[in-house]
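Much of our argument rests on the idea that a fold can be written as discrete symbols. Part of our work consisted of pairing the sequence of a single chain with a tokenised description of its backbone. No coordinates are needed to read the tokens, only the vocabulary itself. The record that follows shows the chain in one-letter code together with its fold in token form.
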Amino acid sequence: MSQDNLVNLECTQCKRVGYQSKKNKKKLKDRLEMKKFCKWCKGHVMHKETK
């Protein structure tokens, strides 16, 4: 897995980075959003791609 395809996913509530995911940057121009479990918020919350 190359470093170019890796993106960090940040929790929208507590603003902590808890996940990394890969993304095809040629096909997806907008930011990635996923509903993931946050271990600090103790629940399933939206996570957005950071810069």
In short: The chain has no helices and four strands. Residues 14 and 41 are 7 Å apart (CA to CA). The domain at 3-49 is CATH 2.20.28.120 (Rubrerythrin, domain 2). The two ends are 19 Å apart (CA to CA).
